[in-house]
Write a structure and sequence with these properties.
Blueprint (H helix, E strand, L loop, with lengths): L6 H22 L1 H25 L11 H12 L11 H27 L4 H19 L2 H13 L1 H13 L15 H31 L1
Helix pairs in contact: 2-3, 2-8, 4-5, 5-6, 5-8, 6-8
């Protein structure tokens, strides 16, 4: 006959599970954050250079598909450390959340490519929401803080679009001024530096510090 846990024991078990999941995520997520963060930054800068140098808006759009390809390859080459700890229900919930977000990003990305519409803000908001939700669930300050920062930064793209529409005569722009409409690509790279690259380095630093003390 199984022993029934008291309410306090149940709460302690839940708190311990959350703590273990948070520790495991912060220990193992630095590398994926850096891989995907730097990949987005590199492809964003590549698209900016291609678009500005060609003078044609939308030129190089297909190179955005390099993000999942390069990210997947690098993730396979540099996988997360193997963990012998059993997966908890919280781990499965977080995995499902990111699966749903990934399925949401994919069609939005394809729509943006074919419609030539700016989707930077939407993708940033989805990614930032996933990071923030993960942080709230596991009570991680790093995830929560940078997730909400990313959510706030996602509004910059709408603000820029409003400014461009109301204060810039796009038809009067000469080729030398075409870089103005490419600013969202640079902003996209900057946002991912703040949202993924910086927290990735922070998590790696904390992990190295803990390993040196143990």
């Amino acid at each position: 006959m199984e022993k029934q846990l008291s309410s306090q024991q149940s709460l302690d078990l839940i708190a311990r599970t959350i703590s273990d999941t948070r520790t495991r995520l912060e220990r193992n997520s630095g590398r994926p954050f850096l891989i995907w963060g730097y990949t987005v930054v590199a492809i964003s800068l590549l698209n900016y250079c291609l678009t500005v140098s060609s003078g044609l808006l939308g030129y190089g759009s297909w190179t955005w598909f390099l993000i999942p390809v390069i990210g997947f390859i690098l993730t396979r080459i540099f996988p997360m450390r193997k963990c012998n700890e059993p997966r908890t229900e919280i781990d499965r919930i977080i995995s499902k959340i990111w699966l749903v977000l990934a399925l949401g990003i994919a069609p939005a990305f394809v729509i943006a490519i074919f419609s030539r519409s700016d989707i930077y803000g939407i993708i940033t908001l989805l990614m930032a929401s996933g990071i923030a939700i993960t942080g709230v669930i596991v009570r991680s300050r790093i995830y929560t803080l940078f997730g909400f920062i990313g959510m706030g930064l996602s509004t910059l793209f709408s603000i820029f679009g409003w400014w461009l529409k109301n204060f810039v005569d796009l038809e009067a722009l000469v080729d030398a001024d075409r870089w103005i409409v490419c600013i969202p690509m640079l902003a996209y790279a900057l946002v991912f530096i703040v949202m993924m690259v910086i927290p990735g380095h922070i998590m790696n630093y904390k992990n190295r510090k803990q390993c040196s003390q143990s």
